[in-house]
User: Fold these one by one.
Assistant:
Number 1:
Amino acid sequence: MEREMLRQFMQLYNNQDVLSNLINSGLNSRYSNSELHCIEAIGKLERPNGVQLATLLSMTRGAVTKLAKRLLQDGLIERYALSDNKKEIYYRLTAIGEALFKEHEVAHTKWEERDIAFLSSVPIKEQQVVLEFLQKFNNYLQAKIQEESL
């Protein structure tokens, strides 16, 4: 049973990835989901820094640094510091990054509408069981991320 559940999760991830690639052609297809979610986070947070991004994206700071490096190289984001605190580094979107952010927002809305239509067809009791399981599994994975980050 456990291996079948893991196989179903893997198939779910793969199907979501394939579907995302089919729907998100053009500029979006050049970037991974992690990179797009980093763009999204930078676009939504008021003054994002590495710690905030790592927390929001459930990633290590090292992983966020690698993402930011690629996005900086591609001219999607830029780094800056406040005039009264040169130690703290923040990120913001460039005009190209802002265009990608908006493109991603449209795709994200389509994804939500598509999958909520399916989830609405699932009885509430089944949704509650699945939701509780997913919360437990995500908490387990978050704890493993913390362990691996030490």
Number 2:
Amino acid sequence: MNVSIVSSTFQPVRIAALAAVIAVMPVGAFAQTPPPAPQRVAPAPAPPKQRAAPQAAGSEAPAPSAPATQGLAAAKTDDVIARVGNANVSSDELRAYVGALGAQDQAALAKDPALLSQAVRMLLANRLVLQEVLAKKWDQQPTIAAQLDRVRENALTELYLQSVSTPPAGFPSEDDLQKVYDANRAALLMPRQFQLAQIFIAAPKDADKATEEKAKKSLDEVAGKLKAPGADFAAIARAANEKDGGDLGWVTENQIRPEIKTLLIGLAKNSVSEPIRLDDGWHILKLIDTKAAYTRTLPEVRDQLVQQIRAERAGAMRRAYLAELLKRNPPILNELALSNLLDSSRK
């Protein structure tokens, strides 16, 4: 979609649905996926801890290549879907990786499975780096070791807090879910939607005269074709280099710039607009269909609501746990020493 017709304030709602897709996706599909386009991708998981390569006694030189098959190396041969050197990635590990992603990242992968190939490549690259780190014993430097200790402490604390603040499996109940849905109906309104197609002719407002004249000539040609009896908008759009015949799909009312929305409201179904000039060029829109605004049903938003309710309960449980822990073990702070520490750090 040409972004110029879309309001910059729009934030689309995403629904996670990848886990099930990955669960049924054949292993071979991962292995044969071509390199992905350079798009956003969730970070690859940290590789498992490995043991440094053994060296000859008294030798200072790092081992030329450390074994990198820990953990995943135990995977069955037919379960391996990617490999770099001696390091393997199994389908089980990849499923676990996807399952640990956030909802938005899972939705992005569901929309573009090629991103999974990119994530696997990042995972393999991380393992190559780890091999080098361990071979050089870089992690054994005192400052690095101290940082690793802090990272481990923070990770342990976080994992434990998660374990004591996880809501019961059956939470929320259907009754609780219905009450939350009823209380938030106003926020679940889906605005009116427009199914659109577009022909766009680039002509930036700061373009020189030659560019402007060329764009105007193209615009006149397209407009003339569209006015011919039986004109095929999609075919004309493809001839104008619009992907998928200029199809923009369904766009919600609050996504659309006000001047475009005004234009669309005056159009009948399956009619084509007059060209409209925006900062980036000329836009000709076809209104294919419309959907009236409606309140999303509980089945439509169930997964999102459950996720949000559980997250809020988990936060409350964590706060209550920490409050109780501190109540039983009141901390003692030397405020004077803290103040002196801050003063000395400012000098």
Number 3:
Amino acid sequence: MSTSTHGTRISPAEVRTATFAQVEYGYDPQAVHQFLQAVSDQMSADRVQLEARETAGKDEMVKIISQAQVLAEKFVAEAEQYSKDLVASARTQYSEILRRAEQAAGNSAPGTGASASPEGNPEYHTPIEEIEYVRTYTKVAQVQLRAVIDALAEQVDRLGDVPGARPEVAAAPASA
């Protein structure tokens, strides 16, 4: 055979132009050349098809990554807005608690749980119900923010799996 196949892939052109030594009782040279032409044509078609799949795969990967990025940005924006809402709510409650404490200090009387210090500042001896409410609300907010962050991390992990999601593209050259 006139074509080198030592460790390299055979191209369609090498198959098409391959020649063989003539022997007395060998194969029909015309039939061999027709078969080689058919193999060469099939190899060319397979390469074109493989290149098209690779291009489509890259386009799909870019599309998936873009969608994941949009989704991640949406999660971050929602988490930021949720945090701003929590801070605003906490400030409102803080103001309300402070206002009530000031009213209680003004109406300081035995049995209300508040009394005036020697300096005239109110001292509280029993827990205020609103403080427990804010503490519970903060814990709930922490759990919800953690859930949003976990969902975002899961989406990022899926991005790491994208190249392995198309094993038929990687396996195609071995079967061609």
